[in-house]
Amino acid sequence: MDKHQALLKKYLKGECTDEERKLLESWYNQQVQQESLSDDIDYKSLERHIWNKLDVQENRKIKIRYIQWAAAALILVFSAISFYVLLDKNEVDSSRLAQAIVPGSNMAKLSFSDGREIDLDNIADGETVALDHIKIYKNRDGEIVYKVMESDDTEELFSLLETPKGGQYQIELADGTRAWLNAASSIRFPSVFEKQERFVEITGEVYFEVAKDSKRPFRVKTQEQLVEVLGTHFNVNAYHDEPNSVITLLEGAVKVQSFGKDYFLKPNQRMQTNLVNRSSVISEVSAEDAIDWKNGIFQFSDEKVSSIMRKISRWYNVEVVFAENFVDKRMAGSISRYEDVSKVLDMLELTNVVHFQLQGRRIVVMP
Amino acid sequence: MTFYNKLHDNELICLVKKGDDKAFAEVYKRYWGILYRHARRMVKLEEESQDVIQDVFESIWRNRKVLEIKGSLSSYLYSSVRYKVFDLLDKGKVRNNYLEKLGDFVNKGVYTIDHLLIEKELSEQIEKEVGFLPKKMRKVFELSRKEHLNHKEIAEKLSLSDQTVKKQIQKALKILKPKFGIFIWYYIIVKLFL
């Protein structure tokens, strides 16, 4: 075998030295420059022809199978956990420190009206994920930035971002509006906003910084109310397990439609609506207090223990039960949301208004 | 599919690794033409040239999960094509007297070029083919070379907003996150049973 043929074989096996490789590759570069190519290529049919020969399958089927396996695995995990929890209950641990209940963190799921879902925990910070004409970018702070590219298909696609108990999330919508979701909350929005309005639906608690767009009002619908703005900062608290819905305005102006009536809010005003008797009260507040959760603290000013406990339950993903002789008193104070639950409970106990017993993931509230 | 064409090569390949067939289709759309022209120039035979392109793309898709691309996607593709051409050459499937010419070249033994320079030369050679493509195809390629600002735009936008408080929170979250895995399971389980 000639030297150059041996060299070629070595090259293909990846056994060349650097010098040998350079030799072959520089020959290649030199050679290609001397070659001509007649231009009788039928690009259209060739593009399709080669593509069809490629074995690129839609991998949806595989995904479904994967989900089934995952479901089976989850049930196993669940059984294991239940078992553990059952065992655990037999030996109630009264010492709180023995089992730290950690606070919530950035967790959410993004799903689409066509059934697709994205687990946002699987996207690394700084990574981009694309779905058709939607581009989802997770910035370094873990916030989701949602970009919609111009698209030919006019098919309306809705996205739903949901946080579980113990989760929170931030998202930037296609128009630049930013929304912060507290635990056990959701926001549903179209992938492309309409020309006349920007319409989203929420549950739970969401703080908005609406991008200014004088031509397209931004409308937020809760189960009972509709908030309309042009560009402003406001917080909507509409948890189903709360007796009141609370809308707090930090900047700008909003109009709220509530049970057939219109209300207008100014900055540092809070509108509290009793969902049972449907009456609303507007009062002056320090609006920043309403977004304490967004800023990482629990802020209670003259708040009922039952209300405080609902917040704790959502954020720490714990069950709260009240002892029979419990009396719902009010208290004030603030503490970081990033402390273990035991620290928060200790602080509340300092008031001597309430006492707690921790049983696994259940908190018993006692006088 | 007007969206994928806005993505950078690196982003596309990230998606391909996750099994996104549309991202893969965009990679194909972007590169098949120039790669084909280049292969055809060297290989001459139509069937064999097609096989080269097919092999290159097929191996990317087949190996997408373990794919490791050092450097750019384009230089990965270019060197893959070159490898395939060498392979055909070895098998005697190229209609040309290349072996002879290679023999001469090797015997002269003059080769002191820097490796990076060789790679750059190859890119230039292959990307020259863009100019010969039909207008529509040319645009696909050229567009992919323009839209690289997205991340920067996003970053600029973010630096305008109130980040100080948030950064602190995020720092805390990063520490806490690993401890929290189990709640995600709970959440998914609940969703499954509802």
What is the name of the CATH architecture of the largest domain in chain B? Answer: Orthogonal Bundle
- Overall, the morphology of chain B is globular
Beta-strand percentage range of chain B? under 5%
Bin the helical content of chain A. Answer: 25-40%
Main beta sheet strand tally, sense and closure of chain B: none
What structural class do the secondary elements of chain B suggest? mainly alpha
- Uncertain regions spanning at least 5 consecutive residues of chain A: 58-67, 78-98
Name the biggest interface.
Answer: A-B, 85 and 91 residues
What is the 3D form of chain A? elongated
Distance between the termini of chain B: 35 Å
Strand content of chain A: 25-35%
Computed CA radius of gyration of chain B, to the nearest angstrom: 23 Å
Annotation field: number of helices of chain A? 6
Summed up, the domain count of chain B is 2
Average pLDDT confidence of chain B is 74
The main sheet of chain A comes to: 19 strands, mixed
Question: How are the SSEs ordered, and which strands pair?
Answer:
The complex is a heterodimer of chains A (367) and B (194).
Chain A: H1 3-13, H2 18-34, H3 43-53, H4 60-90, E1 105-106, E2 109-112, E3 117-119, E4 128-131, E5 134-138, E6 144-148, E7 158-162, E8 167-172, E9 178-181, E10 186-190, E11 198-209, E12 218-221, E13 225-229, E14 233-238, E15 244-251, E16 254-258, E17 261-265, E18 269-274, E19 280-284, E20 297-304, H5 305-316, E21 319-322, E22 330-336, H6 341-350, E23 355-359, E24 362-366
Parallel strand pairs in A: 1-8, 6-8, 11-12, 21-24
Antiparallel strand pairs in A: 2-3, 2-7, 4-5, 5-6, 7-10, 8-9, 9-11, 10-11, 11-14, 12-13, 13-16, 14-15, 15-18, 16-17, 18-19, 20-22, 23-24
Chain B: H1 9-17, H2 21-43, H3 46-62, H4 73-90, H5 98-108, H6 115-128, H7 135-144, H8 150-159, H9 164-176, H10 181-193
